[in-house]
Amino acid sequence: MKDVLLEIRDLQTHFLTDRGEVPAVDGVDLYIRKGEILGVVGESGCGKSVTSLSIMKLIPQPPGKIAGGSIRYKDEELTTAKEKRMKMLRGNEISMIFQEPMTSLNPLLTVGEQIGEAYRLHRKASRKHTRLYTIDMLNRVGIPRPEQIVDEYPHRLSGGMRQRVMIAIALCCEPELLIADEPTTALDVTIQAQILDLMKKLNRETGTAIMLITHDLGVVAEMCSRVAVMYAGKVVEEGPVKDIFRDPRHPYTKGLIRSIPRMDIEQKQLYSIPGNVPSPGSITQGCRFAPRCEHAMDKCHELMPELKLADYDHRSRCWLEQGDAEG
Amino acid sequence: MTKHVLEVEHLKTYFPIRTGFWQRVTGYVKAVDDVSFSVREGETFGIVGESGCGKSTAGRSILRLIEPTEGKVVFDGQDVTEATDSQLRDMRRNMQIVFQDPFASLNPRHSVRRILEEPFVVHGTAGKKERQDKVLELMEVVGLNGSQLDRYPHQFSGGQRQRIAIARALALNPKLIVADEPVSALDVSIQSQILNLMQELQRNFGLTYIFIAHDLSVIKHFCDRVAVMYLGRIVELADKAPLYREPKHPYTQALLSAAPVPDPFVQKERIILEGDVPSPANAPQGCAFHTRCPAAFERCKQERPVLKRTAEGHQVACHLYP
Predict the structure, then answer these.
(1) Residue B281: inside a domain, yes or no?
(2) CB nearest to A215's CB, from B187, B193, B258
(3) How far apart (Å, rounded) are the C-alpha atoms in residues B136 and A276?
(4) Closest to A261 (Cβ–Cβ): which among B190, B221, B263?
(5) Cβ A229 vs Cβ A236: under 8 Å
(6) Residue at B195 is within a domain
(7) Whole-model pTM above 0.95?
(8) A193 and B CB contact within 8 Å
(9) Where would I find the ABC transporter domain in this sequence (chain B) (predicted)?
(10) Domain ranges of chain A
């Protein structure tokens, strides 16, 4: 596949805790094509954020470490890349936006200084040019009065405006890949609609691929072309958004889709997946979802199924799909 | 005609803004600004709105967890706003609250047993033996195991903690439960468990809920009637079905169109509102929404619209509907 921008294979990211070494990411397989929007969905603790931090090599070490697997960006292996090389990539070719814009912006620097920082570093631009470029960036992310806002401090801006500033910082060097970790979770619905609209527009205009991490299936349905569903540190299903919503193969994906309240359909009672989300590392044998799965067979509790092609471009990790082929 | 359990009339809750050395009051944050509605027995009344619209303050002012500035709240024929402390305590037996964050609302130093026994101790309604039986029964009702009674809140997951909070609210057999964003801190698969539990409890115990949330699809699923709030005011109030089918107020229309639909095959028209919600300390003159309203005209800037009933049974506060 030559249009693949980033490919993750069997990624293992472990954290050292009181309970020993805990695998937060336990064999993730993912790829992102150039210019696409990939959704990564899952509930808290499924390892979706840790996966994204692993790509950027922003896992605090110790207690964390990338214990195995590979992350290939274009033709380069990132898991073994030197810090110097990562610094050249970060903010330049791969950039990231986080959930809480207030905690990820520096309160002591003006908006303009923060946007210009990466640009000046990577492009070796002059101060004067950087300022003009910064104002242009603010304009592109839909901030009114950019000439004035450029000299404002983050606390003077609303949540939606701060997230726009974050996006401007992330996109100022025209990266190939933007990792957005729950970018709209802290925002209100009407502001969320503005930000999603902006991200879609920028994706169309600049061709920046987006890895959109979220827990909201509604956001995935509206934004993404492909989606990967994660559960307990693994990808359990992956494929085109329309296929996954029309014909989900993994019981977890099915349960997740059925358990969200819908505005467009009348539902008497919601479906609910029994049990709780397991804490990372608590299940070591068999399919991670088996204890909550209503179709679980003996085999499921013993052996972990592979992530296998279920349909064209659609992979799932479940014995129900693959059981017969292997006896 | 159905009986009204709760009547809220012209409720206002203002928080003073103090500045300077003398801490003089220089203005007010009008968190709840003239809100009226009534809740029927056995129904679920939803309050929806974005952050800062005053929905939580409204919920708490009704229970007088926050002292309202003006207005009247009548619960079950008794005036809550005029009640003395001891009267209020008796009334609270019948009106309880469940909070958003089940971690913050349960005392981490108390075992679940102690948390659940507390309402009986405070109100002195049951002896020691009876209390123990009741606590066990409560655990069962909310789907937890009685053997977990001596554990502490941190040993439970978010969903289980919310079950404990619900059990505590249920302890004294209340008539009304105010649920303030009870599922927004929970994962999707756990959220539906809690919603189903709350529905089941409503059927079994004939509870009335005031359900406060920002998630429009949760509100639609759960409530019978819905009030939409914007900057401290109710802009629209209607039965669930007509509200979602045919929203009247431009804000409701925008809010509904902005919510993402979890179905990639649905294409919908989006109304994207410009700008942000103004600060409630400095709400616009006239209609609070006129600064962002796509249909605003001259009158909206001057005159505050009142909540009026339209032909279809909607109540809407907008000059577009005379």
Answers:
(1) no
(2) B187
(3) 22
(4) B221
(5) yes
(6) yes
(7) no
(8) yes
(9) 6-256
(10) 4-93+173-326
